[in-house]
Each structure stands twice: as C-alpha cells, then as structure tokens.
Design goal:
2 domains; 9 helices; 71% helix; 0% strand
C-alpha cells in the first residue's frame, strides 16, 4: 500500500506495473488471508501493528476487487485499465499537440514495431499504450522466470518501449500536477 501510494504520486507507469504484479502475487497466494498476512504483511517488521492491519486490509480489498470483477484467474483490475485509458488519451494528444514534439520523436522509433508487437501478443485491437504495458509486464515476467530464450525480445522492448513509457509517465505527472498545459501554443515551455 505504501509503495503503491508512492509510485502513484511519482510514476504512473511503475504504479500500474506494481499493481499488475501484486494481482498475480495475490493469485499465487490463492487469495488466502493467512498467506497474504504471513507473506506480504508480517515481513514488514518496521511497521507497527496498526499499520500492518491497515496494509493487510488494503491487500484484502484488492482480493475482493479481483473477485468482484471476475478476475480471480487472470486479467487486470478495471482501475489500472482506466489509468491506461487515460494514458492512451494523453498519448493521442501528444501525437497531435505542439507540446508533444519530443514525445513524437521517441514514439517514431517505436511506431514501426507496433504491428508486430500486437501480433506477438495476440491482441491486434488493443491501444498502443495497453500494448506498451503488456509488453513491459511480459518482459518483467520473463526476467523473473530467467527465460534466456526471450533475451532479444526483452532487449528490444526495453530499448524501444521504455523511453516512450517513461516520457508518457513524466508528462502525465506534469499534467496532473498542473506543471504543464497541453494546449499552450508554445511547445518550448508547455506553459
């Protein structure tokens, strides 16, 4: 919970990937309250009992959301999918507005690879931003599993997608904090 709160404030992309990883971890623990407490809460020795209880209830709230949304086996919480939708809207604006000049430059290097990435992930109709997150999450899982057969794919994803997602997350943070105005006519200042 505390990690998620920090990531949400600073980097929306890390926040989404963190929650996706947490969803899979909760599934691996079979949503067992005992396992959640012993594996995820109890090990936080720096927290007092009240904060441990708060953390435990937060994890169980996520378990309940996964159940309510019918995502016990797979899938991602609607909350993160809505955030990806927001990021995709920002992505589309940055492709058109003057303030997106640097973002368009980064995206241009990735754009030719998008059709093959969509084909590889088996989802030709997903948005570009959802594709970015699914590819980054797949890379994270390959790394955790130590899958050496995917090393070239991992390197390509990291080299092409990471800069685009980092720039998008940075712009999202700036827009959210009011540090930049997307609709300003001066692309140099963004204000």
């Amino acid at each position: 919970m505390y990690i998620a709160q920090s990531k949400r404030k600073e980097n929306i992309a890390e926040y989404i990937l963190y929650l996706w990883q947490l969803e899979d971890l909760l599934r691996a623990l079979q949503f067992s309250p005992e396992a959640v407490y012993s594996q995820l809460v109890q090990k936080n020795e720096h927290l007092d009992e009240a904060r441990k209880q708060e953390l435990f209830f937060w994890y169980m709230d996520i378990v309940n959301l996964l159940r309510e949304e019918g995502k016990e086996q797979n899938g991602h919480l609607d909350h993160t999918l809505h955030l990806i939708g927001d990021l995709n809207n920002l992505h589309l604006q940055l492709l058109e507005l003057p303030v997106g000049k640097e973002y368009r430059r980064l995206y241009a290097a990735l754009a030719p690879e998008i059709p093959s990435l969509k084909k590889r992930l088996g989802k030709p109709d997903m948005s570009d931003v959802e594709l970015f997150f699914r590819a980054l999450y797949a890379v994270m899982l390959y790394r955790i599993k130590g899958d050496k057969s995917k090393e070239g794919y991992i390197r390509d994803v990291i080299d092409l997608i990471s800069p685009v997602v980092a720039a998008l997350a940075d712009m999202f943070r700036k827009v959210e904090r009011g540090e930049i105005d997307l609709f300003d006519n001066d692309p140099r200042t963004g204000k």
